[in-house]
Write a structure and sequence with these properties.
Elements (H helix, E strand, L loop, with lengths): L2 E20 L5 E21 L4 E5 L11 H13 L4 E7 L10 H16 L6 H9 L5 H4 L4 E5 L4 E4 L7 E6 L6 H6 L14 H9 L13 H7 L1 H12 L4 E4 L6 E5 L2 H12 L4 E5 L6 E5 L1
Parallel strand pairs: 3-4
Antiparallel strand pairs: 1-2, 1-11, 2-4, 2-5, 5-6, 7-9, 7-10, 8-9
Helix pairs in contact: 1-2, 7-8
Amino acid sequence: MLRKLRAVTRAKLNLSLEVIRKRRDGFHEIETIFQSVDLCDDVHLELTEDGNVTIVCTHPGIPVDASNLCHRAIVAMRPYAGESLGARIQLIKRIPAGSGLGGGSANAAGVLLAVNHALKLGIAMPRLESIAAGLGSDVPFMLHGGTMLGRGRGEILTPLEPLQDAFFLIVRPPISISTAWVYENFKLTLTRHRPRINLKAVNAVFARFPEATMSFRNALEDVVCPAYPAISGVLDELLSTGPCFASMTGSGSALYAVYESRARATKLAERFSVRGFFTSVARPAKRAVDIFED
């Protein structure tokens, strides 16, 4: 067995994120709207039968040991592909790590789909989703992509009307935020007055985007913004530009604003990039992962 593949793995934004309760298993129950965007990494895989997993990455801050989600994804596929399954993986990173954009989750989903495809394992999507959920709460969504409502930890997925016409200005200050810290410090009383996401309303929203989205927000901003004034400042600055919508994605530190024209989003991106912030102007994407023979 020697198969070479390339997975194009795309970032996600949370167009809304509400925290419902803390579960007995220690996780938090959430309701969120996931949206894939065309900011992407490339994952090059060479599958082997020697049982070894080696990872190289273009970003020096990404771990390349057994803690890497791509490594864990290979291990998770061994019960189906054989215990000798190994891989040589090259990660070409464009999605910044520790940003709430789901780059690592997308990379892991790409590995799961690539192994299933290359070895013709025929693992059905519900089983792949279960494997993905064992790797991380965002990984099941990354098997699909597009526009979806996520419930539970984010792994219970419902397709929504696809988002068509929008330009996302993504801005990430040079700050990394621990997701575990954010949830540990989240107080449900902070958001008790906000309504939960209504599926019918959400579908109606995407039929009339962007007007109604102003009712959406990320509840985790209530923890992050007071603790990180730089994040709060960028969000305020984005809101001052009159976007259709602006918010933080995931637990941060990336934020985004939605505009109706690429020219406007691109011009505003310059304001942040000259200050050393990561910026990207992205479009909605229908899938989170595409697999190609390499």
